[in-house]
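Weekly structure sync, notes
Attendees: PL (lead), two postdocs, one rotation student
Agenda item 3: pending single-chain targets
PL asked that the sequence for the first pending target be pasted directly into the notes so everyone works from the same version. It is reproduced below exactly as submitted, 127 residues in total.
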Amino acid sequence: RESKSKKTKKKTDPSTPGITIAITLAVPDGGRAPPPRLADLMISSLLRSITHSSTIKMRQTIARRLQSKSYRADASGRASEKRHLRYEQEKFQEEMSAERKRRWKRNNPDAGHYRPSGHRLRSPNNC
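Predicted structure, written out during the meeting:
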């Protein structure tokens, strides 16, 4: 069985493209239907409320997605930059070390061939 009175209102909000909301006011059999003016007021108020809530929720979701994407991109960029800096510092330190070795060998022709001899080989306990 159908109810006595049905009020249906469909509205597409121009400020929120893609959202269609349908509201139906159903009055059960034996129930008292509200006056048409009050029914229209209730439906339009409910429609406004639902539209407003869903619009806010949609904007929050979109903002959250954008923030997440930008945060991921920033984090990825920072990590890449850190890796690059670490590589550059390591390369610089290796070059400094190699240069130090070259200078040391150039100034010390006997470098790497140190052989203790004479009294330095004796133990201090065996004097």
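Discussion points:
- The chain has a mean pLDDT of 79.
- Helices lie at 36-107.
Action: rotation student to compare against the earlier draft before next sync.
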